[in-house]
Amino acid sequence: MDALNPDPADPETRQYDLGALSGAARAPLPARPALLDLDREALAEFLRDEPRFRTDQVWTAINAKGQAPDQISSIPLTLRSKLAEEFPPALTPITEQRSADGRTTKWLFELNGGAQVETVLMRYRERATVCVSSQAGCAMACSFCATGQAGFERHLTVAEILEQVHRARDAASPQRLSNIVFMGMGEPLANLERLFTAIERITTDIGIGSRKITVSTVGLVPAMERFADANGQVGLAVSLHAANDDLRSELVPLNRRYPINELIQACRLVRDKTGRRVSFEWAMIGGVNDRDRDANELIGLARKADAHVNLIPLNSTPGYPTTGSSPQQVKHFAGLLRRAGINVTIRSTMGDDIDAACGQLANRGDPA
Ligand code: SAH
User: Ligand 1 centre from 132 Cα, in Å?
Assistant: First the structure.
C-alpha cells in the first residue's frame, strides 16, 4: 500500500476528492512518508530484521505516546537513528502564538513539500479542545472564510493530521486533551480516506473517544452518506449559514452542486444512522442571515433534520467586508429559535486577537 495515497485508483476515493476536481493541487505531497503514515503492516515490514515485539513497541511509542524516534528510550540507539533517518517529521513549527488571555495557542506549521497549515488549541476550565486542519488551504471558496479566500494547496497526509493532535496534547499537558474538532483549514470530508484513518488512530491509539470528536463539513453530500455508515459516534457539524438556496449558493458555492434539500436529507440520514444529532453552524452576518425571516427558515430546516443549531458571530476576514451581527442581534436570533423549540447554542469566540478564531486561519502567522 502507498502510505500517502490510500487507494488512489479507487473511484469512491476520487468521487469525494473535490480538492483534486476543482483544480490541481498547488503544493506537492511529501516525497517520503512520515512514521505516522505507516499502518501496522508497513511498520512491521520496515522492522522485519528486528525481534517481533518491536513492532508493537514502536507502534505504541509513536501512535499512543506521540514520541519522535529520538524519544523512544525503550529501543536501541541504532534503531532510533535508523527511524529518524528514514522518516522525516511531518510538521515543522514555524510560529507559536498565544492569545492575551493565555487560553488559545495557534501554531503555524510547515509541511514537507512547502505548504503551511495552522492548528489551534483552546483551553477551557473543564476541557481542552484542538482544532485540526485537514487540508492546506481549501477548495470550497466560501466567501466569508479566510481559508476559502486563499484557495487550495493540497490534502494533508494521515501523519500531518495526527501530528497536530500529538503536539496539541503535549502543549495542553498537564490538562488532558479531551476534544478534537476538524474545524481548522480545509474541508475534512474532501480528504475522506485519510480523515477516517486518522480518526481510527485517534480513538484506538490516542484514546480520545469518538463522541469527543467532531467533523465539520460544508455539505459534501456523498461523503456525508459514507460518514453515516462509517463513524458510529463521531459528531458531524454542517456549515449551513443560509436556509435558502439563493443566499447559500452565494456564501457557500458548493451549494450549487448539493442544494439545501439534498443536504438536509443527508443530515437526516446521519442523524438516523448514528443516533446523534447533527449540528448546524451558522455564522451570523449582519443584515445578511440574521433577520427574523432567516430565523424562520432555519427553524424549518432544523426541525426536518432534527438538528442542533450553533450560532457563531462572524469573525472578520480580509476578503469579506460585511461585519458580524451585534451581540444583541445574536441573542435575539437565538431567542427566536429557542422559542420554536430548537436546541441552540452560541459559540464563544476565542483567540481572535491572534487570528485563531473560526474562519480566520490562512497562514498569516509569518513573523515578518
Ligand atoms: N470546511 C469545513 C471545516 C472548517 S470549519 C466547514 O466549512 O465546515 C470552520 C467553521 O468556521 C465552519 O463552520 C465555517 O463555516 C466557519 N467560518 C468560516 N469563516 C468564518 C468567519 N469568518 N466567521 C465565523 N465562522 C466562520
Answer: 13
- Nearest atom within ligand 1 for CA of residue 134: 3
Count of residues making up the chain: 368
Nearest to 61 by CA among 49, 75, 48: 75
Whether pTM > 0.70 for this model: the answer is yes
Tell how far the Cα of 142 is from the centroid of ligand 1, in angstroms.
9
Cβ pair 325, 284 in contact under 8 A: yes
What backbone phi and psi angles, to 5 degrees, belong to 123?
Answer: -100, 120
> Which pLDDT does position 61 carry in this prediction?
98
Catalytic amino acids?
118, 358
Residue 334 and residue 299 in contact, taking contact as beta carbons nearer than 8 Å = no
Cα-based distances in Å from 213 to 37, 97, 149, 274, 344: 20, 24, 26, 14, 19
Cα 299–Cα 304–Cα 307 angle in degrees, nearest 5? 70
Cα 274 to averaged position of ligand 1 atoms, centre (Å): 23
Q: Are 136 and 148 in contact (CB under 8 A)?
A: no
Backbone φ, ψ for residue 269 (5° rounding): -60, -45
Q: What is the bridge-based pairing of β-strands 91-98 and 152-155?
A: unpaired
CB contact set of 124 (below 8 Å; sequence gap of 6+): 103
Q: How confident is the model over 254-311, as pLDDT tens digits?
A: 999 999 999 999 999 999 999 999 999 999 999 999 999 999 999 999 999 999 999 9
Does the pLDDT at position 8 exceed 80? no
Torsions phi, psi for 281 (to 5 deg): -95, 140
Residue nearest to atom 24 of ligand 1 (CA): 314
Q: What is the pLDDT of residues 57-92, one digit of tens each?
A: 999 999 999 999 999 999 999 999 999 999 999 999
Residue type, 54: R
Q: What is the mean pLDDT of residues 18-27?
A: 57
Name the residue with higher pLDDT: 359 or 298.
Answer: 298
CA distance 161 to 144: 25
